[in-house]
Amino acid sequence: MLRGALKRCVSGIHFEKGEFVLPVKKDDSFAAVQKQLERIVNMLNLEPAVYQILKEPRRVVVVSFQVEMDDGSVKTFTGYRSQHNNVLGPYKGGIRFHPDVYFEEVKALSVWMTMKCAVVGSPFGGGKGGVTVDPRKLSKRELEKLSRAYIRAIANNIGSEKDIPAPDVYTNAQIMAWMADEYSKVKGYNDLGVVTGKPLSMGGSVGRNEATASGVMITIREAAATLGIKLPEAKVAVQGYGNAGSILATLIAAHGSSIVAVADSSGAAYNPAGMDPKELLLYKKETGSVVGFPGSQKLTTDEFFAVDCDIMVPAALENQINAERAATIKAKIVAEAANGPTTPEGDAVLTERGILMIPDILCNAGGVTVSYFEWVQNNYSYYWTAEEVAERLENTMVCSFKEVYDLYTDQCKCQTEPLSMRDGAYMLAVTRLAEAMRIRGWLGHS
After folding, report:
1. pLDDT in tens, 290-312
2. Of the listed 92, 116, 128, 198, which one is catalytic?
């Protein structure tokens, strides 16, 4: 009976060789991040227990819940919440609604969140969640029901002092508002700090919507200055034209850079003379894609990565830059606005070719940084001005870039193997995590 009940409870689960087995999509992201962690722990000569603690999430919650659709039918959905490590503070990380959300993916994403929070010094650990669904096929009413049902299913596992979700792929401020409201109903009291990325009228922070893109812009600016690249003369290519990609394109164009290529899931638009990012966004909203933008040439995704540019910004999903694509990239800077957009093989090629890569756990940390600011403001019920948020974000990202870059260059002098900025970021994060675990007694006694 237990076996049958569990099979009904979680879609796709099956019983094999005496154990319940979750469906796992073929993807190497989680194995890759584990390998990176082990390598960094060994390189820093840390206690083996550091890797043993960091290699797996402390908890992964898998839930099944039902939603009544507009036509009266009932559908079952599977959701996840991975809580990786909380040595520095409550778990923190986004919730994504996407048809390709799966068990191993949220585990990898939660590890990256732990590293990201440690790099920028936010007092959080890493978490990540999601629901396997295509939200574009849902009505607004169905989307609200899905959001509320998911948060009810994980309500006992989250909270403003335990685990604080935020927006991610295909989720937004409205969805966060529904989730915060539903959580408050479940608990019987208002706890607006349970999620971040909320609307301003519900305790959100000014600057949160553009925070990820703003952080990416700051790190690109610092990297360009380091390499002597003048932004007013730079050509930029952006993959992914959602919130982060479109805002980043507008910000960097305001610095005088030229947006020569933009890609989405349908292909890419290319114009070596440059394209207006705001007009491009309007065109995408009207047509559903950037492809066909007036004056542009259509490219495949592979052709997009080979365009002549100075700065390449992957702002879509994971595993976009593999070894083959990395070998064709002409950019001097690759700024990872997305989480995990470069495979380990692609990483190795970029490092060998001397391309400066700003890793995701540094580059796109503006989002979690301003999420931290929002959480602080919720806890104090005292809200900052846009100027105060921007100044704090600027200071955090500039200091974090300098710390990572300095560690990267220092380590390059004493390590025999080629290193990347990703290595520098992981070294900084793991060192901070190991110190906290050591002080708290998690590593045992030497």
Report:
1. 999 999 999 999 999 999 999 99
2. 128
